[in-house]
Amino acid sequence: MSTVGYDYTLTRTLDAPVDKVWAAWTIAEHYGTWASAEEVVFDVRPGGAWSSVMVIPGGTRVPLSGGYTEVVENKRLVMSMNVPGRDEPVLMAVDLTDDGERTQIRLSQTLDTAEDRDQAEQGSNFLLDGLAAHLATA
């Protein structure tokens, strides 16, 4: 990740083993359930692509796409997201730490502006809320 820009990092402890958290992020059917996404397609490998349509509260549908730049099973995902009007994709890192029946997850990004960072951080908190709720019932 770039050292220039506006960073955020979110860390949570989830009540699920690391393999279940990994599956939630890497299996399209699981991701669609907790991330409020439809038409999810994942090719989880370095150089692989992903796409989905996020359905945000109120029913607005937002098509998203990107790729995977780093994949270390049960430990780390670095994903890119194509952003309209931006030359280079935005990267997000998902780091997992195994703690037996629990998993510490850390999401981090560097963005160009404070406004972009704040919006991305809000979206990531929404994702983590959905993930935690999904894992609690899985």
TrEMBL record:
It comes from the Bacteria. Residues 15-135 form the Activator of Hsp90 ATPase homologue 1/2-like C-terminal domain. Pfam families: AHSA1. InterPro entries: ASHA1/2-like_C, START-like_dom_sf. Belongs to the AHA1 family. This is ATPase. It comes from Planotetraspora phitsanulokensis.
